[in-house]
């Protein structure tokens, strides 16, 4: 699944219920916000953190085993 979280809110509190042993993918259009979010997750002990700057298409390329979205 996925969670959309506004970066300033993410800096205040990470989403609850996430498994620190599963990969976390963060993305934004430019990559700058994703890098900031990725650092927050990494600092909180999440591994691995995959940061992309091209939005959803970049995430799909970073995780080729992920199932495509249902249409």
Radius of gyration over all CA atoms, rounded? 12 Å
Look at the helices and sheets and give the structural class: alpha+beta
Order of helices and strands: HEHEH
The strand order across the widest sheet is 1-2
- Bin the helical content: 25-40%
Which geometry do the CA atoms define?
A: globular
Low-confidence stretches: none
- Mean pLDDT figure: 79
Can you count the beta strands? Answer: 2
Main sheet makeup: 2 strands, parallel
Q: Report the total helices.
A: 3
Q: What fraction of residues sit in β-strands?
A: 5-15%
Q: What gap, in angstroms, lies between the N and C termini?
A: 15 Å
Word description of this protein:
The protein is of the alpha+beta class and 71 residues long. It has helices at residues 7-12, 32-43, 56-62, and strands spanning 24-27, 49-52. Strands 1-2 form a two-stranded parallel ribbon. Strand 1 (24-27), helix 2 and strand 2 (49-52) form a beta-alpha-beta unit. The two termini are 15 Å apart. The mean pLDDT is 79.
Structural features:
single chain; 2 strands; 35% helix; alpha+beta; 71 residues; two-stranded parallel ribbon
Topology at a glance:
Elements: H1 7-12, E1 24-27, H2 32-43, E2 49-52, H3 56-62
Parallel strand pairs: 1-2
Summary?
The chain is an alpha+beta fold and 71 residues long. The chain contains three helices and two strands; from the N terminus they run αβαβα.
């Amino acid at each position: 699944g996925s969670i959309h979280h506004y970066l300033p809110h993410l800096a205040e509190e990470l989403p609850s219920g996430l498994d620190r042993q599963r990969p976390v993918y963060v993305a934004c259009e430019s990559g700058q916000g994703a890098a900031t979010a990725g650092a927050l997750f990494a600092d909180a002990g999440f591994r691995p953190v995959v940061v992309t700057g091209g939005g959803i298409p970049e995430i799909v390329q970073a995780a080729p085993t992920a199932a495509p979205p249902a249409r």
